Please model this.
Amino acid sequence: MTWTRRHLLDLQSLTAEELTVILDTARSFKAINGRSIKRVPPLRGKTVVNLFVEPSTRTRISFELAAVRLSADVVNFSAEASSLKKGETLRDTIRNLEALNADIIILRHSASGAPHYLARFASAHIINAGDGAHEHPTQGLLDTFTIRERKGRVAGLNVTILGDILYSRVARSNIWALLKLGAKVTLCGPPTLVPKVFEQFGCRVTWNLEEALRDADVVNLLRIQHERQRVTMFPSLGEYTALFGLNQARMKWVKPDALIMHPGPINRGVEIEGEIADGPQSVILEQVTNGLAVRMAVLFLVNGGKATETE
Ligand code: CP
Model:
């Protein structure tokens, strides 16, 4: 199929075919990243702006590296040192970036829907790098890519997402991608963070950790999103860890070939014991590596590239 979208705003609106085009394109770019000369020309002459109004390590750096590998000029916008601090609106900021010929703007923002708002008037391509608790599409894509690469398929797999689902944009993007590609998704955590309403997405919701772990082919752990919780959702972090933290005793419920995933940043000793994060079933750093290929694919496709032009 042909890719026709100008922006990547979410995964909810993508079809299974579009998701597969991105994953297949990312596979080609991953092969390029294994070569001695890793730079390819598709974005030569283009300007990519990393506009991160919330903190980031993995997403910002891998988008920067992805744009450099595609031969783009890259500008990293620091919100703290920008005129946003002087009251300039996001809309005016974007218009000024476009006046400087920004071709692709990658936005991370605390407000859900901020990238969708920009896409209504921007002439640049907009990529959502995480908007509030709404979506984090490239994280959902790199997680799905990692599962497909490791397991050889997505359809039919049991994927458990464990933790703070309510406030997690990563959870929502994973849910959309995994369900569209035929996986069965189980959500688990405290009832205040995993409400039954998520069953309307097509997921199974359980508050029983053993039940959630036993048949899982993949266990994706999420940290507690303190920055987005407006009220206290459970008595203490210690109680969360005692009831839902993944530790060695609970690993006995996990299949020996199940993948342990985490989008990062990890809170060691809270949602996951350090030994498990560093253990043989963990693919956490592989997720980071795959994020680079996925972000190269997204930059390439929104700029009008065709899946066959990656060589
Ligand atoms: N997974 C993720 O979005 O990490 P960063 O916040 O470091 O980008």
Q: What stands out?
A: The pocket of phosphoric acid mono(formamide)ester is lined by residues 56-59, 130, 136, 139, 263-265 (CB under 6 Å).
